[in-house]
Design goal:
Trigger factor, domain 2, 10 strands, 21% strand, 11 helices, five-stranded antiparallel sheet, Alpha-Beta Plaits, alpha+beta, 3 domains
Length: 433
């Protein structure tokens, strides 16, 4: 058996596998003898067919199975001896398959990358500094009121924040197109639910007004056949509606799910909620920043098989979020290329984190694991049953332990890396700017 590996630090590897003809023939003969004892061949009793008849019928398939099994077995023996970790299945290409001659295969495969991390204290990350102001609280309350408002007819012109009920017909090159027309369609001006220019074009209109909107579909529009095309929407206003905000009273406070008897108490509750959200946002921003930092400081080749696996996971998650069974996924609905860059980043970070876990011999923190499980279980009616389920399901428990390990490593990174402070407003934190 001959073999030759490339540089151990390279992800793509290849080797030549040679299996002795005598070994192949010995196994083929043994399997043919076994097949003869159980073979059901027309004209012969079970197990009584002559060996040459059995050989004629079964040898090609048996020989192919023996060769495949022998080559695969030799492959894994070789990579284990060389202390390599294959990623995915090898691509086995036959170079010689002849009876009474040694079988030769060329195997190409990817291996888990060997990486060497530098000192973590050389890393730096962006630490966000922010706080909740009275203006943030008041703005949040107004947004809640707007979400819970009722609508009433308005005399006069439509303005931003109003709703406008319209009939419209869309035409491309003077031809109506599917999905381009509607009656009694309600648009909230400023919601940005329509293509650019549509809502803005409705400002100033009043009941019974008519107007043509000359617009262009964006390049990344969901329907590819409409993307970048010029369109004219002929609009007729049926009604203009203005928001009627709910009064700031105990009934309104209760409807939001918060317990408060007056506006002052309500503001305090809102401030507490915003502060909790802000702390989680800041924590997540620091995590993303430090992981980006260590990924950029440790550039290495990532196995395509791992990227493809992560792409498939991301596509399936995207399908589930829109209520689709991943089994019904079609390539054109969630194209793989849209996930590849992010998938590569995720795989790179995962490899780095695993290296840190290995080097520092980090084990999952039992108390942290329980807290993660209890936090998840708190969302259900019978939390203790959910806790018991997690601890009785090995796969789910391993998943939570992985989350715990990632949190532990991130905390180590944040403690050893240098923080560069960046001051942002609450709104900037929430909007992701």
């Amino acid at each position: 058996m001959r073999f030759s590996f490339g540089n151990k630090n390279e992800v793509e590897q290849s080797l030549t596998i040679s299996v002795a003809a005598d070994d192949i023939e010995k196994q083929v003969k043994s399997k043919l003898n076994s097949a003869q004892k159980t073979a059901k061949i027309k004209g012969f009793r079970k197990g009584k067919a002559p060996l040459d008849v059995v050989k004629k019928m079964y040898e090609p398939e048996i020989r192919q199975d023996v060769i495949n099994d022998s080559v695969i077995k030799k492959f894994y023996e070789l990579v284990e001896k060389q202390n390599l970790k294959p990623v995915g299945r090898p691509n086995l290409i036959p170079e010689r398959i002849e009876i009474e001659k040694d079988v030769i295969f060329k195997a190409t495969f990817e291996v888990y990358p060997e990486i060497s991390l530098g000192n973590l204290n050389r890393l730096s990350y962006t630490k966000t500094v922010s706080s909740v102001t009275e203006e943030d609280v008041n703005k949040t309350i107004e947004n809640i009121r707007k979400r819970m408002c009722s609508w009433e007819s308005k005399e006069g012109n439509a303005s931003s924040g109003d709703q406008i009920k319209i009939d419209f017909i869309g035409k491309i090159e003077n031809e109506e197109f599917e999905g381009g027309s509607a009656k009694d369609f309600v648009v909230e001006i400023g919601s940005k639910s329509m293509i650019e220019g549509f809502e803005e074009g409705l400002i100033g209109l009043k009941k019974s007004d008519k107007k043509d909107l000359d617009l262009t579909f964006p390049e990344d529009y969901g329907k590819k056949d409409l993307a970048s095309k010029s369109v004219v929407f002929s609009v007729e206003v049926k009604e203009v509606l203005k928001p009627k905000l709910p009064a700031l009273n105990e009934e309104f406070f209760k409807s939001t799910g918060l317990v408060a008897e007056n506006l002052e108490e309500f503001k305090k509750e809102i401030e507490t909620k915003l502060q909790e959200d802000l702390e989680n946002l800041i924590k997540n921003k620091s995590k993303v920043s430090v992981l980006d930092s260590i990924r950029e400081a440790n550039v290495f080749e990532v196995p395509n098989a791992m990227i493809e696996s992560e792409v498939n996971n991301m596509r399936e998650d995207a399908a589930r979020r829109v209520g689709m069974d991943p089994k019904d996924l079609k390539e054109d609905l969630f194209p793989k290329e849209t996930f590849e860059e992010e998938a590569k980043k995720r795989v790179s970070v995962g490899i780095i984190l695993n290296k840190i876990i290995e080097e520092k011999s980090i084990k999952a923190d039992g108390e942290r694991v329980r807290k993660i499980i209890e936090d998840r279980a708190a969302m259900y009616k019978e939390p203790q049953q959910v806790v018991n389920w997690f601890y009785s399901n090995e796969e789910q428990l391993r998943s939570i332990e992985s989350i715990s390990l990632e949190e532990q490593v991130v905390e180590i990174l944040l403690s050893e890396a240098s923080a560069v402070e960046e001051e942002l407003t609450y709104e900037e934190c929430v909007s992701g700017k």
